[in-house]
Amino acid sequence: MPTLGVIFQPSFPPEQLRAAAQHAERVGIRELWVFEDCFKESGIASVVAALAATERITIGVGILPMPLRNVAILAMEMATIERMFPGRARFGVGHGVLDWMGQVGRRVASPLTLMREYVPALRGLLAGEELSVDGRYVHLDGVRLDWPPRGRVPVLAAGEGPKTIALTGEVADGTVLTAGTSAGMVRDTVASIAVARRDAGRDGEHEVVLFLMAEFGEDAAERMEAEFDHWHLEGERRFAATGSDDEIEATVRSMLDAGATTVLLQSRASEDDFIGYLDAVARIAHRVE
Hints:
TIM Barrel, 8-stranded parallel barrel, 10 helices
């Protein structure tokens, strides 16, 4: 079943998150995601706070920058959250913004190598395996979680370029596509992932989670132009869903038809009525789910 959710951006004050998650749950939105931008809000702390404030809604985080977190620590965090809130959290990891990683002394020379080592190690630890790894970036010596999750916890990975996209298909359980991804780009990405998974001998479902910038109402397209500039998006990446509910729904459906399994609507970073935005997202969710 396709899922339509919403994103609580780290440009919003963190003290607003619990009320936003509660309202999203109340109006029937099935997923609310946060993401972790330097140097704003902790992704893990935000997920836990939102889960503790609600009862049913799924809370996701995409993405957690791999260079900032030792893989064993992240496995411990994910396992603890899953055991406390079974089946209600989703996790995505990624390269992180390289300039930000450099600011804290964590920029790696080969982000692809890091992902190739990190994601399988994270999946193995969450599966309860004892791991010894001596890679370029990941080093584990007989590490096994004392409290692994009771069930499977998918590990999603974010990507943009063709090499990273192929790698997410090879090593991860799903791919997170950030804002500024058109339906055509989604379709091409899904095809590339399928090839990578086939070549790697992997089968089974692979999730595709899409962040889709969306603005409702009259003059929405004009307001979105400033948002494109805010995120430094150019060319085909200056893409968003804008306009009436019918127009927003049509764009969401085009993304689902292109192969996205979850579409998360992302407001403008300066949105000053996020509760009202949640009501608008709920209207679209009731149409497409």
